[in-house]
Amino acid sequence: MPSATGLTALRARERQAHRFQGKEHSTNSTMSTADIREYCILDKESRQLMKQAFDTLGLSTRAHDRILKVARTIADLDGAEQISDAHIAEAIRYRALDRKFWE
What is the C-alpha separation between 2 and 64, in angstroms, rounded? Predict the structure, then answer.
């Protein structure tokens, strides 16, 4: 039997497969720009956090989209329908770590 972490990941994959049913891709990492607009809707707080990160960290459009994809995955792991500011914050932290180690 899978661990609790494994079950969480499995459920997140199932959410993604259901979300992208009938499309060529089945994961958040392969979302197109149109998919990001459709499945990564942000509330006011999340949009503000993204704007702050964009301004402070000097993010590119590509980094912006990657953060949204990661935040969507974090929300899926959390079992949430909508991306929250907490999901955005976690994705931004991962991006900051990525920049620290690869730049």
Answer: 33
